[in-house]
Amino acid sequence: MTPVDPAPARLHPWIFTLLIAPFGMVGGFLGVTLAYQLGQAGVGSEAIAALIAASYLPHTWKFFWAPVVDLGWTRRGWYGAALAVTVAGLLAMGGLGADGRALGLLTVVVVLTNLATTVIGMAVESLMAHATPDEAKGRAAGWFQAGNLGGGGLGGGLALWLIQDRGLSVTASAAALALLCLLCGAPLLRLREPPHEPVPTAGRTLERLRASFAGLRADLW
Prior knowledge:
- There is one protein chain.
- The protein is mainly alpha-helical.
- Helices cover 72% and strands 0% of the residues.
- It contains nine helices and no strands.
- α1 runs parallel beside α7 and α7 packs antiparallel against α8.
């Protein structure tokens, strides 16, 4: 494992608004802006609904790969890689969604982009747990939710406004969101990574399970 600073920097709670915003932007862009554009291009509502439904598949099964983010590499590394895929996915969604002629390929891109956003969410949540003082965790969670909702507003409202009121193409509006996503990840460039907790041995894991069951039994009886 890469050596880390023994005294990692702490992240201010409002930083989590920026870090999680790309997660919301993808959902807002797909559910509002891209759905509108596809409808304008003559794609049926059933096909649009199926595309949006496909985007939820990675979020349904993400618990399978969630432990990987905590056990390997660095949280900043996972975030950066996932953000790069998200940016590429937004650009591809904007290009493919202009006329709706490649719905199959667009569906693949949507699923892969949402797969990347699940990793963004996991990395940010892990940083929130390990790079935030205990007394600031409540505020960090509030800023986190604000960023998620605000990102959805940017991905839907701002991108749609750029198309309808400013005359930009859906490809250009997707590029604007992609740039915003990159800016949202900027605070991590100077972060000194908090260390991963060591993976517990089988014996320690068994001890923890026994302690947990003992505490549960004491609460129940």
